[in-house]
Amino acid sequence: QVQLVESGGGLVQPGGSLRLSCAASGFTFSSYAMSWYRQAPGKQRELVAYIFSGGSTNYADSVKGRFTIFRDNAKNTVYLQMSSLTPEDTAVYYCSRGGTAWGRGTQVTVSS
């Protein structure tokens, strides 16, 4: 079955960087668009970044220029490189395939 496993979250100071990873299995990874969402306490889950199977990307306005989504089809993994982090980026980050398959999430906390 479809499995998505996120890793790489943690505590980082404002201005710092983190790279999240999402290891996928159970489907032909290279054929699917993949996305990263996040959900902050008390807020709705929001789309952060999206990468098509061909490699084109889209980003939420709030992260443009700071976050980069990329994929390694040989490793069945999608990544989210995050830089210039602010406390407003604190959230649980989820990997998704098509908004229907989800990982369990990884916590990112930006705090001094």
Give an account of the 3D structure.
The chain is mainly β. The chain contains no helices and eleven strands.
- What about the largest sheet? 7 strands, mixed
Helix/strand-derived category reads: mainly beta
The percent range for helix content is under 10%
Work out the helix count. Answer: 0
Order of helices and strands: EEEEEEEEEEE
Total beta strands: 11
How much beta, percentage-wise? over 45%
The low-pLDDT segments are none
Shape, please?
globular
Average residue pLDDT: 97
Alpha-carbon Rg, integer: 13 Å
End-to-end Cα distance: 40 Å
Question: Would you summarize the structure shown here?
Answer:
The protein is mainly β and 112 residues long. It has no helices and eleven strands.
Which terms summarize this structure?
112 residues; mainly beta; seven-stranded mixed β-sheet; 0% helix
Outline the fold blueprint:
Layout: E1 3-7, E2 10-12, E3 18-25, E4 34-39, E5 46-51, E6 57-59, E7 67-72, E8 77-82, E9 91-97, E10 101-102, E11 106-110
Parallel strand pairs: 2-11
Antiparallel strand pairs: 1-3, 3-8, 4-5, 4-9, 5-6, 7-8, 9-10, 9-11
